[in-house]
UniProtKB/TrEMBL annotation, chain A:
Gene Ontology cellular-component terms listed: oligosaccharyltransferase complex
Localization annotation: Endoplasmic reticulum membrane
Descriptive protein name: Dolichyl-diphosphooligosaccharide--protein glycosyltransferase subunit 1
UniProt keyword Transmembrane helix, yes or no: yes
Topological category with respect to the lipid bilayer: Single-pass type I membrane protein
Protein origin, superkingdom: Eukaryota
Pfam hit, one: Ribophorin_I
Keywords assigned by UniProt, alphabetized: Coiled coil, Endoplasmic reticulum, Membrane, Signal, Transmembrane, Transmembrane helix
Transmembrane segments: 434-453
Position of the signal peptide: 1-19
Subunit field text: Component of the oligosaccharyltransferase (OST) complex.
Pathway listed: Protein modification; protein glycosylation
Upper taxonomic lineage: Eukaryota, Metazoa, Spiralia, Lophotrochozoa, Mollusca
UniProtKB/TrEMBL annotation, chain B:
Gene Ontology CC annotation, any one: endoplasmic reticulum membrane
Pathway connected to this protein: Protein modification; protein glycosylation
One Pfam family linked to the record: AglB_core-like
Name of this protein: Dolichyl-diphosphooligosaccharide--protein glycosyltransferase subunit STT3A
Species name: Candidula unifasciata
Cofactor: Mn(2+); Mg(2+)
Domain Oligosaccharyl transferase STT3 N-terminal: 24-430
Length: 541, 717
């Protein structure tokens, strides 16, 4: 019996270790002694920052703290991170977990830097970003109207532990707040609303917080992003991003008047232009879409980045959408490291598109050189890896392996590096140039063979004789040249005789030259005769 | 010989046999000409981007993309519901697929070899590619007519002749670009066939006819090439008249006609046209004549003169009356298509203007002005008669062909601007013949001036000074007078305007920088992304192809103007008052209306300037009979948009859509609000509201304005 229980325990341990199903229990001894919350709704995102002073009232040390996401925000969470207040530069490990009995809630386990001893306190700072929480209200506005949005969430800090004292500050986009929940104590100053302190709230306590504010920040959402990274070992990495954007704020109702838009500069919440920061080494930036180049962009080179000011073809009003392609090249030495045949690519998983960006869906494709093997991926956060693809482009034979990654709901905080390790044999770099060289070599060879060999079955007499004539003419020419050279040497001989007065030498040389001359003249005559016969023959044909 | 030895390159050249030198020079000149003809056409890609131009090419591009993505069978069965709402269009059966098949083939071959290239780039670069092929074909064509040197001159001229460049720049993806290649190829092979009389070459003609199915049968679509199909029969007829008919011609023509007709009938759109429509009758008639002529020749060789004469007369009478009766009966029964309007307009330039407004409304169908002859052909205008002269001095069967081609095409080019394209190649060929003949005659005298000093005693030919003068003028660049040979390239500057893609407009800003008006694409892209997928867009037919290709929305009428009444209906809507127009728009399920308005930027080919055509076409059918052109003029007969303008004009839908809220805009300093920069007046009706439409989008420079058609009012309201 005991062995059976032991076996079950072992099995459970085995399963939990391998299936990565984190299971936690709520430690009843932990108390949030002081919570300070900041909800930033100045943009279209909801950014929360929570400072929690955790107190361990139990007898034993505590290793981790459970953070539960507010049910109203649960499905909007895009990013979460935590640090201890005293060690801000060291990120704590935050991992998703489950708590039995609370299956509908989203728990995160924050592993503390060091176990929290009994009776001690530690202050954690949890930062979280939520997208698509703010709802435009009214949901459709005219061009001249301003955009109002509503935030509905929990007034209290939502926690599995009891909270002794808590305060909440909401930062609004402007001082124009239509209405807000007036649970006392509450105070409103310029762009912030302060709630609290509220004392002694139990675990999972809830109350409505509703804020209706004017928010004209453009509610721009990247609905789909496809990022292609193509690596060339010749020293270049090409990046291309296909971006679908949509204005997810209050929908434009009624006409769009260009006159008012130009004259009164209204359309407060519309997107006129935005700025994308590319890596400082980015070159050959292009901005286009399906129907061609978009001429409205400006490029500015800064020290740390290349800023591209992009203007969509048309201003984006609520509910309008568009898409574009932005591409550039970066030198590979900045991102590609190697050791022998082992290569490592270290690049950003996602890059800056605009400030406070939201990306609903993203697909990252990394095209490796042909023949890359042993691909190994390291990512900074959880992503979904799709099956690898094969991509064919210029002169490929086997195709290039493509790593495909997928992730949803990304924000600026996701701009982090990933690493991709692979092996690639260097000689393969020469494969394609050699192929071209080989092809041309073959082509020329074939032409040479074709030109040199006579493939005709019949004999073309006229052509033959023409060729004979031309060789004869050549011979005549050379004979003639030599003969005229003889005259020169005759001259030389005369001059020599004039100076030396050596009669015998002169006579011998003259004789020799005369003989040569006679020979050549004879030769030319012969050739002429031959030519004559040849031409008469040719004339016959 | 010694002089030349100084330069290494020439020495190396001289060492080769004359044969090789000849080949090398020819190859080099031809290659250079081909490269030149490709590269001169790339200006717009370099200055702007690789993009399709104009209107028709967008349709071709769209269909090519469809063909490349969906395959031939889907293409063949393609019913396009994006155009001609609510009628739709059966694309597969109503186009000549040659162009699309060619580019889809190139696309697939390139991608098969893993040379990644997208369909758009294939389409953009197809015309330059084919024009460099044309250069090579021209060489062979002229070589067949005269000799290789004339061919080289003709080829180099063709590479840069403005009349052809303007139709084949990168991005103008149209039938014309490849049709000229096919046409010249056909003619080359035809000449070859006539010269040799062998079936081998004649069957090659077929191959090329098949290749240019669309060229040959584009005929029926725009009439321009009517004379092209008829040129070969005409040539044969002329040879018969001049007594040059022989077995060679009989063999060549019979083969070409029979096989060519059968093969061209395989294109589903062509169908039975080659034997039914009157435009093709000449070919059939000449075919018949050929048989008779051959038969008569045969009889003559077997009979005595006396018997033959009696037989001949009776036969002529009999056959003539039978043929006439048959033609009359066939026409009466409708078996032979009646002469189409476009054909008449070729013979009589004023015909179309008087009878079919839709034909006359296209600027390409206007008669050519004298200046455009010079701007499109430059020097060739003067070389053409020289070439003709040299052809006449040595008449051959082939020369008769080129003479006929030259003379007929110069007539047709005078009728329609568009046919300038057909004229350009023959101008180059004849110009090449002329130039080369002149050069061979006078070039011998060019060396003389240098020798003259040494051997002053040498007797000079009596007409020597004249010859020398001619030559110096022709080709000596050091001479004071301008070398004529260089004339053509230097005038290419005129072409700059042709090389701007019409989809993007550019202007000079105050500080000299270039301002780009990209409003067309702005509007089309807005339509593509921010209207419902099934929205119907009403616009004048000029923009139909662009809207379907770039905005991917359903349109009512497009550049394939096959249904006159439908276009007329759109014209009526544009020319009516708002209430009337609303009825028409409801009837046609219109959701959006798009107009082009240049009043703010000064873009002159906008819809207000085209408006009279809309009125004319709108009023040309029964349902639009209430629309009278005169109502839109002032009593003095002027077309004005200011206060003096006709009230009918100032209250019609087109006026309102163009000038909605324009009345409060300042366009130019020192001028009142609502000053139209195209018409140069202050508009007459400034303050009005639209009842049945609402402004949906207006582009940055107001070039394109899109309106949404409001729904019917709620009953209760």
């Amino acid at each position: 019996m005991k062995t059976l229980v032991l076996f079950v325990y072992l099995l459970q341990a085995f399963i939990s270790a391998h299936c990565k199903v984190n299971q936690d229990v709520i430690d009843a001894n932990i108390v949030n002694s002081k919570v300070e919350r900041r909800l930033d709704i100045a943009t279209h995102l909801v950014k929360t920052w929570t400072a929690i002073t955790v107190e361990n009232r139990g007898p034993s040390a505590v290793r981790s703290y459970l953070f539960v996401v507010d049910p109203s925000l649960q499905e909007h969470l895009s990013f979460i991170s935590a640090v201890a207040k005293d060690h801000k530069d060291e990120k704590l490990l935050v991992s998703e977990t489950k708590v039995s009995g609370h299956n509908d809630k989203l728990f995160f386990r924050i592993t503390l830097r060091s176990p929290l001893e009994s009776g001690k306190t530690v202050t954690l700072e949890v930062e979280a970003v939520y997208s698509h929480v703010l709802k435009p209200y009214p949901s459709a506005i005219t061009q001249a109207e301003k955009q109002f949005v509503v935030l509905e969430t929990n007034l209290y800090f939502y926690s599995p532990y009891p909270t002794t004292s808590q305060m909440t500050t909401v930062i609004t986009a402007s001082s124009n707040v239509e209405s807000y929940t007036k649970t006392k104590p509450v105070s409103q100053s310029d762009t912030s609303i302060n709630y609290g302190p509220f004392e002694d709230k139990g675990p999972f306590s809830e109350a409505t917080l509703r804020i209706h504010e004017e928010n004209n920040s453009p509610f721009m959402t990247v609905t789909n992003l496809e990022r292609l990274i193509e690596i060339s070992h010749w020293g270049n990495i090409a990046v291309e991003e296909h971006i679908d954007i949509r204005h997810t704020g209050a929908v434009l109702k009624g006409p769009f008047s260009r006159f008012d838009y130009q004259r009164q500069q209204d359309g407060y919440s519309s997107v006129k232009q935005f700025k994308t920061s590319l890596p400082a080494s980015a070159r050959d930036v292009y901005y286009r879409d399906e129907i061609g180049n978009i001429s409205t962009s400006n490029l500015r080179e800064m020290d740390e980045s290349v800023d591209v000011e992009l203007r969509p073809r048309f201003p984006l009003f609520g509910g309008w959408k568009t898409d574009y392609i932005l591409g550039y090249n970066v030198p590979s030495y900045e991102y590609l490291y190697n050791k022998g045949d082992h290569y490592a690519l270290k690049m950003r998983f996602i890059d800056h598109i605009y400030d406070d960006m939201v990306v609903d869906k993203m697909r990252l494709k990394i095209i490796l050189p042909e023949g890359s093997k042993d691909i190994e991926l390291k990512v900074p956060f959880e992503v979904q890896r799709k099956p690898d693809e094969v991509h064919y482009t210029y002169l490929d034979t086997l195709g290039r392996p493509v790593v495909v990654l997928h992730k949803e709901n990304l924000v600026e905080q996701h701009i982090q590096d990933f690493e991709l390790h692979y092996t690639f044999q260097r000689w393969r770099l020469l494969q394609e140039p050699l192929m071209i060289v080989g092809t041309f070599y073959l082509l020329f060879l074939v032409v040479i063979i074709y030109v040199r060999l006579d493939f005709s079955i019949t004999k073309d007499e006229a052509k033959e004789s023409r060729m004979r004539v031309s060789t004869l003419v050549d011979e005549v020419q050379s004979a003639h040249d030599r003969r005229s050279a003889l005259y020169q040497s005759y001259d030389d001989a005369v001059n020599k005789y004039k100076s030396s007065k050596d009669m015998t030498a002169f006579i011998t040389s003259r004789k020799k030259i005369d003989a040569d001359h006679k020979l050549l003249t004879q030769q030319i005559h012969n050739l002429q005769a031959q030519l004559k016969t040849e031409s008469s023959e040719a004339a016959e044909k | 010989m010694k002089k030349i030895q100084g330069t290494w390159g020439l020495q190396w050249l001289m060492r080769m046999s004359p044969d090789k030198q000849d080949t090398l020079l020819k190859m080099v000149i031809l290659t250079l000409a081909a490269i030149l003809s490709f590269s001169t056409r790339l200006f717009s890609v370099l200055r702007f981007e690789s993009v399709i131009h104009e209107f028709d090419p967008y349709f071709n591009y769209r269909t090519t993309r469809f063909l490349a993505e969906e395959g031939f069978y889907n293409f063949h069965n393609w019913f396009d519901d994006r155009a001609w709402y609510p009628l739709g269009r059966i694309i597969g059966g109503t186009i000549y697929p040659g162009l699309m098949v060619t580019s889809a083939l190139i696309y697939h071959v390139m991608n098969f070899l893993h040379l990644t290239i997208d369909v758009r780039n294939v389409c953009v670069f197809l015309a330059p590619l084919f024009s460099s092929f044309t250069t090579i074909v021209t060489f062979y064509f002229t070589k067949e007519l005269k000799d290789a040197s004339a061919g080289l001159v003709a080829a180099s001229m063709l590479a840069i002749v403005p009349g052809y460049i303007s139709r084949s720049v990168a991005g103008s993806y149209d039938n014309e670009g490849i049709a000229i290649f096919c046409m010249l190829l056909t003619y080359t092979l035809w000449i070859k066939a006539v010269k040799t009389g062998s079936i081998f070459w004649a069957s090659f003609v077929l191959f090329s006819i098949l290749l240019h199915g669309e060229c040959r049968y584009l005929v029926s679509s725009w009439g321009g090439y009517v004379f092209l199909i008829n040129l070969i029969p005409l040539h044969v007829l002329m040879l018969m008249i001049t007594g040059r008919f022989s077995h060679r011609i009989y063999v060549a023509y019979s083969t070409v006609y029979c096989l060519g007709t059968i093969l061209s009938m395989q294109i589903s759109f062509v169908g039975f046209q080659p034997v039914q429509s009157s435009e093709h009758m000449a070919a059939l008639g000449v075919f018949g004549l050929c048989q008779i002529h051959a038969f008569v020749d045969f009889l003559r060789s077997k009979m005595s003169t006396e018997h033959f004469n009696i037989l001949f007369r009776s036969l002529v009478l009999l056959v003539g009356s039978v043929v006439f009766a048959a033609a009359a009966v066939a026409t009466a029964l409708g078996k032979i298509a009646p002469w189409t309007g476009r054909f008449y307009s070729l013979l009589d330039p004023s015909y179309a203007k008087n009878n079919i407004p839709i034909i006359a409304s296209v600027s390409e169908h206007q008669p050519t002005t004298w200046s455009s002859f010079y701007f499109d052909l430059q020097l060739l205008m003067f070389l053409f008669p020289v070439g003709l002269y040299y052809c006449f001095t040595k008449l051959t069967d082939a020369n008769i062909f080129i003479i006929m081609y030259g003379v007929t095409s110069i007539y047709f080019a005078g009728v329609m601007v568009r046919l300038m394209l057909v004229l350009a190649p023959v101008m180059c060929v004849l110009g090449g013949i002329g130039m080369s003949a002149v050069l061979t005659t006078y070039m011998k005298n060019l060396d003389n001036p240098m020798k003259k000093e040494k051997k002053s005693t040498k007797k000079i030919e009596s007409n020597y000074p004249l010859k020398n003068e001619v030559d110096c003028h022709l080709c000596n660049p050091t001479n004071d007078s301008f070398p004529v040979v260089l004339h053509l390239p230097l005038h290419l500057g005129h072409l700059r305007s042709l090389l701007v893609p019409s989809i993007v407009l550019s202007a000079r800003g105050g500080d000299g920088s270039r301002i780009i008006f990209d409003d067309f694409r702005e509007a089309y892209y807005w339509l593509r992304h921010n209207t419902p997928e099934d929205a119907k867009v009403m616009s004048w037919w000029d923009y139909g192809y662009q809207i379907t290709a770039m905005a991917n929305r359903t349109i009512l009428v497009d550049n394939n103007t096959w249904n006159n009444t439908h276009i007329s209906r759109v014209g009526q809507a544009m020319a009516s008052t708002e209430e009337k127009a609303y009825e028409i728009m409801r009837e046609l399920d219109v959701n959006y209306v798009l107009v082009i308005f240049g009043g703010l930027t000064g873009y002159s080919s906008d819809d207000i300037n085209k408006f009279l055509w809309m009125v004319r076409i709108g009023g040309s059918t029964d349902r639009g009979s209430h629309i009278k052109e005169w109502d839109y003029y002032t009593p003095q007969g002027e077309f004005r948009v200011d206060k003096e303008g006709s009230p009918v004009l100032l209250n019609c839908l087109m006026y309102k859509m163009c000038y909605y809220r324009f009345g409060s805009v300042y366009t130019e300093g020192g001028k009142p609000t609502g000053y139209d920069r195209v018409r140069n007046t202050e508009i007459g009706n400034k303050d009005f509201e639209l009842d049945v439409l609402e402004e949906a989008y207006t582009t940055e420079h107001w070039l394109v304005r899109i309106y949404k058609v409001k729904d019917l009012d709620n009953r209760g309201a």
